[in-house]
Design a protein that fits this description.
Length: 236
């Protein structure tokens, strides 16, 4: 695919929003923006994450999401990016224009579309069956990776939220919703529920940014078998 063909009108608009994330449309009470240094991003565990530049934000806003919703608190994108230099996944603060446990998001339209197809073909059920198979060595490895993934995202929220943030959230949310947000793992998944991956888009985005998610890695390998490269494009 040439750069000329990679025009805005040739990119499918991203429709994916994880239905498993807690989303509550509440405006943040201040206009402060959240950002992290490159060193801090790496210290938090995102070995393939970098501070986004203006072109990254504009790409996500104008080409991928076609929205400026929740743009101001994106604090990292993937370092490798696609073959055309565009981000494939990003991280945002829990509190932005909305409160959401969906801190990580896959935004490459080509990967999103390809994973949509995997999910519609039953890949979630296929992986869930592996997670439930106590006699499968692969299943056991996936379960352990899933456990570590959920624990990582639970711990990350504790590091991201200041005491001021927590007070704000407690005022805006019910006790149950707040407890679920704070105690959950990746995209709001209950940490000890290790037999349902919920969303392959989020698992893949996590893998792209951390390189430490066997479920996301398995999805990427499945895509490559179908001719979709990890850079988000078909072919070489």
């Amino acid at each position: 695919m040439s750069l000329r063909l990679f025009a805005k009108e040739s990119i499918p608009k991203l429709q994916y929003i994880s239905k498993y994330s807690f989303i509550n449309s509440l405006c943040f009470s201040t206009n402060k923006e959240f950002s992290l240094s490159q060193e801090k991003i790496e210290q938090l565990g995102f070995k393939n994450g970098i501070v986004p530049n203006n072109d990254d934000i504009l790409c996500i806003k104008d080409r991928q999401l076609e929205s400026d919703h929740m743009m101001k608190d994106i604090f990292a994108v993937d370092k490798d990016k696609c073959k055309y230099g565009r981000p494939r996944a990003h991280l945002r603060h829990i509190i932005s224009n909305q409160i959401s446990s969906g801190i990580v998001r896959l935004t490459c339209p080509h990967l999103v579309k390809a994973i949509d197809k995997l999910e519609s073909d039953g890949k979630i059920d296929s992986i869930n069956n592996l997670l439930k198979d106590e006699n499968s060595e692969e299943g056991k490895a996936l379960v352990e990776s899933f456990r570590k993934t959920n624990n990582f995202w639970h711990d990350l929220k504790g590091k991201m939220l200041s005491e001021e943030d927590k007070v704000y959230l407690q005022k805006k949310m019910s006790t149950e919703a707040y407890d679920n947000l704070i105690s959950s793992g990746l995209i709001g998944i209950t940490r000890d529920k290790l037999d349902d991956v919920k969303c392959l888009h989020a698992q893949t985005a996590d893998y792209i940014l951390r390189r430490d998610n066997l479920i996301g890695e398995k999805v990427i390998k499945e895509l490559e078998l179908n001719g979709i490269k990890e850079n988000g494009c078909s072919g070489k």
